[in-house]
Amino acid sequence: MKLVEMVLDNGIIPILVFDGSDMPIKDKENGKREEFDLCGMVRNRERMKKRQEAQQLELEGKIKEANSSYAASINITPELYVPLIKRLIERGVSYIIAPYEADAELAYLSHHHLVDLIITQDGDSLAYGCEKVLFKLSPKGRGEEIQYRNVFQSTELSIREYSEDMFLYLCILSKCDFLPNPRGKGIKRLVPFVKEGRTPDRILQLLQLKGGCDITDQSMLGGEVTCRYRSDFHRAINTFRYQIVFDPVSQTQTTLTPVPEDFDLSLHTYFGTIEPDVERARELSRLHVNPLTGERIDCLAFPESYDNLGFISLKKDVSMHNKLNLLHMFPVRTITKSTIPKPQKAERPSVEKEKIGLRSPYFKSSKPRSPVKSLSDYKYEQFDVC
């Protein structure tokens, strides 16, 4: 809630998006790792490892590090959303419970220009094609903004000739939530295969012929048999393209992007199914119904003055544009490696040094920052896409 208060203090209108129901495509992967402890809070080996790590750190007296590991070991369920959502309602902040993944819902809001910027810690936002993403937002208001259009100008990855589809293939193969990555193939090693292959099947053929990855019989995970890697790759692509989301304008569920005419949604339930009941879809988006259990949650009452989707009308109001422009609110750290030459430093008086630079209204630093004409003048090249 501290970050919410921070952006509110800066005149920014936040919309919080929460995960909804579990993705069917993840059931197979989660089923392999699922383990429960006595408290029922740890649901897989990674969380169990984090909890053991937290216990060890606590014994060593490293309380701050232990708290961080404990937080990573907890399985977040919709029941845990309730106290926070009550605070959001009190503060008049809008929120949406996504039908499935919050990342897809954020991408939908970005694609339809219902928000100006996505604030997240998840690199999948770029794979979904979000236009502007602010990563690593600190309580002091610092963050790193990456614009989707500048990703292709990266000299680190050399993907200038990539299409948006090719970039999506690269993100999926380099490790995403829906598909394990090829053994021994990180994102940089995958770049030439995607560049040459250009299509999903051709890319996998090149990985098998030139990359030493057997995608038919041997697992790309390292030893485990998986004959369905090719079809799983296509499923992951469809999930990133057509995942089920909630449209706050029509207040109905739909797909992230329009599906082709010959694409039968009833045959592709692995990325979710659309709730046909409009009223139930609306209740799910407000957490009046638990998306996991289907049980009603009656403790979230909306006061008459509270408009959960008020941000839609604000976006249409030209007078609110300045309040929605985050470029004037946060000091965004630009990436040092840029192909654009640095601006010439202005001459300063020798006696009294002139203070120049942009400063956030929230983050009051004694150290002046270099002048920046526009964040769009910079290319962001150091990033973690998946």
Largest sheet: 3 strands, mixed
Instruction: Please state the average pLDDT score.
Output: 75
Over the alpha carbons, how many angstroms does the gyration radius reach?
23 Å
Tell me the overall shape: globular
- The stretches of 5 or more residues where confidence is low (pLDDT under 50) are 29-43, 217-226, 318-343, 348-386
Please provide the count of β strands. 7
Number of separate helices: 14
Report on this structure.
The structure is a single chain. By secondary structure, the chain is mainly α. The protein has 2 domains: 2-40 and 75-323, no CATH class; 41-74. It is built from 14 helices and 7 strands. The chain has helices at 2-9, 27-33, 45-59, 63-73, 81-91, 102-111, 124-127, 148-151, 164-173, 187-197, 200-209, 229-242, 278-285, 311-316; strands at 15-18, 94-97, 118-120, 132-135, 144-147, 244-247, 252-255. The strands form 3 sheets. Strands 3-4-5 form a 3-stranded mixed beta sheet. Helix 10 (187-197) crosses helix 11 (200-209). The chain is globular, with a radius of gyration of 23 Å. The two termini are 26 Å apart. The relative contact order is 0.15. The model is unreliable at 29-43, 217-226, 318-343 and 348-386 (pLDDT under 50).
